[in-house]
Each structure stands twice: as structure tokens, then as C-alpha cells.
Amino acid sequence: MTGVLRPGHAQLRVLDLEKSVHFYRDILGLVETGRDHLGRVYFKCWDEHDHSSLILSASDSAGVDFVGFKVLDAATLDRLEKDVRAFGLPTERLPAGDLLETGERVRFRLPTGHLFELYAEKTRIGNGLPKINPPPWSPDADRGMAPTRFDHCLLYGPNVAGNKELFVKVLGFNLVERILGPEEAGEPEIGIFMSCSHKTHDIAFVEYPEPGKLHHLSFRMPTWERVLRAGDIMGMNKIPIDIGPTRHGVTRGETIYAWDPSGNRFETFAGGYEPYPDSDPITWTFDGFAHGLDYPQGKLHETFLTVVT
Ligand code: M3P
Ligand code: FE
Fold first, then answer.
1. Which of 18, 45, 89, 262 pairs as cysteine with 14 (C-beta 3.0–4.6 A)?
2. What pLDDT, on the 0 to 100 scale, is given for residue 146?
């Protein structure tokens, strides 16, 4: 991995900031790492090392402001900035410090309408464990659902084909799985799951008429049992569940989809498999999609296709 490394951060719009801080810190179980002069609140998952992966911003509408991926170093950032411009997208440089403890960001708008950014620097504050003879988890792993990392996001918007071009040809991602549309529509790809690593997906897109929509942010749980335990915590706290606990056919992930206090969907997720760059993509036909979404039930949950923020 020498180009784009991983999902780094997402800035999420929330309606009631303090209620959301309570949810993300005490119920989901993230670590609060800072607040800035704009009132934004920064979090990371306990086993992440960089300063922050989720930023909450108070707003009167829910949704995602932008998603940022970390790249290897400053030279990689410069190279990708040129490549994105050559692809035909205007880019903007945001100064270091505009986001707390984060270096310069190169920002551009994806064909699906989402603001997307790349950056090379973020202060490493560690996961609370020593680098010599560490124990397997820290006290922060014992609060709430306690995901280990911000794993991926699924975004909805028009022109998924344009995003595929950009991510595969310019940003160096691999297409790992795809969902085809109906036969009568000529089977265009309506869903793409792409990886810049050995994960089944670091980012995914589904075709949708409205640009810039968030389907879900996904948080990694170490085991299926921990996904079930997250479900117990959702029950104890009356967190509304959308789908699950179940397993996706797409990516084989073990999952629960639920809603945060603003109606933004989040996922607690485990499992999957480890594709390599030479793996062949897996295809889900439109009539196989119900099992792609919920393998045991084979159910095309209406909300999956229609509820976004
Ligand atoms: C995920 C995931 C579909 C499945 C979505 C899968 C579109 O959210 O994390 O694997 O059927
Ligand atoms: Fe997901």
C-alpha cells in the first residue's frame, strides 16, 4: 500500500450536538479527542492511532459534509492532486489546522456530488497502549459498543460509473464487488464496493438520483459476538435498528444498521474476507441483490434503498 492508505475521517452533520456527543461517546463508545473554535467535536475509535476519524458538526440537516482518506506522504498527495486535476476535476487545498491536528487537505467533488478529500498528515496520539509489550486492549475498549476503527462508508448519488473511473484509474482502488441493475435496463452497475487495501471495501457507492447522500458510516467490531453485543446495547438504549443483526451476502460482513439521534445511519460491522489486488470482482445480479443485502433472509429491505441523509 503506497498511495491512498485508508478512510481517515468523516464530518457528520448532527441536529443536537450534546445529544449526539452522548450517543457517539457513551453509547457507541468512541473517544472524544477535541473541540474546535467552530464548535465541532472530534472522536476516534479506541484502536485508531491518528487524532480523529469522526467529526460532529451541528446543523439543521443531517448528512455528511465530507469524507477524507489518508495518503502515504506529502509527495503522494501532490501526485494525486495533479492526477485528479488531469482527470478533469477542480481541486482546492485547505490549510493545515483547518481541521484540528490535520495537515493540508486536497478537496474535490466526486461525480456523485460528495465532497472528498485526501491528506497526508494527522497527529498520531496512539491507541492508549504502549509500543513495547502492549496488553490487547485499553480501558477505552470497555465503554459502549467500542468499535476498533472507522471502517468504510456507503454513499448514494448519481453517476456511480464516474466514481468508479476516478477511484480505479486515478486513486488506485480495486473493484471488489458490484451490484447490477435490472436486466431490462441493460444491467448498469448500480452498486460498487472498492478497496485501497486488503479489505472488502474502504468505500462503496450506490446509484441514486439525489447527489451527495450518506447511506451509512461503518464501524469495525472485532467479532460477530461483539456485533451482537452492540445490538444488546442498542436495545438497552432504545437506539432504533434498521436491519440486523444479520450477514450481508455482499462482502460477507456481519452487520447491524441503526440510526444515530439525527437519523444518520451507522453500521456495526465484523467479518468479511481479504481480497488481494489480483482477486476477480464478485457480481451480484439484480435478482440476487436481496441475498446480497441480507443473506439469511433474502429480504430487500425497503429502507435500504430509500432512507438516506
Ligand atoms: C455493506 C457492507 C448491499 C450490502 C451492503 C453492504 C448493498 O454495507 O458493509 O458490506 O447489499
Ligand atoms: Fe457497510
1. 262
2. 98
Residues 198 and 62 in one domain: no
H/E segment holding residue 160? helix 160-165
Last residue of a domain, one of 103, 124, 142: 142
Question: Could you tell me if the CB of 40 is within 6 A of ligand 1?
Answer: no
Residue 257's pLDDT is: 98
pTM, whole model, 2 decimals? 0.97
* Owning domain of residue 288: 151-306
Give yes or no for residue 250 CB within 6 A of ligand 1. Answer: yes
Of the three residues 142, 171, 192, the one that is the final residue of a domain is 142
**Measured in angstroms, how far is the CA atom of residue 121 from the centroid of ligand 2?**
26
Which tens digit of pLDDT belongs to each residue from 198-208?
999 999 999 99
Can you give the CATH number for the domain in which 302 is found?
Answer: 3.10.180.10
Residues 169, 200 within the same domain: yes
Taking the alpha carbons of 235, 239, 245, 251 in that order, is the dihedral positive or negative? negative
Confidence bin at 185 (pLDDT 50/70/90): confident
Ligand 1 pocket mutation pick from 207, 218, 251, 301 by most atoms within 8 angstroms of CB: 251
Non-local CB neighbours of 302 within 8 Å, separated by 6+ positions: none
Whether 96 and 241 map to the same domain: the answer is no
Taking all residues of the chain, what is their mean pLDDT, rounded to a whole number?
97
Ligand 2 centroid to Cα of residue 107, in Å, is: 24
User: Using 50, 70 and 90 to split pLDDT, how confident is the model at 1?
Assistant: confident
- The enclosing H or E element of 228 equals helix 224-236
Quick one: 35 and 9 in the same domain?
yes
Does 209 lie in the same domain as 118?
Answer: no
Of all protein residues, the one whose alpha carbon is nearest to atom 4 of ligand 1 is 293
The single-letter code of the amino acid at 245 is P
Confidence category of residue 114, pLDDT binned at 50, 70, 90: very high
The total of other beta-carbon atoms located within 10 Å of residue 75's CB is: 10
Q: How far apart are CA 202 and CA 150, in angstroms?
A: 10
Total residue length of the chain: 309
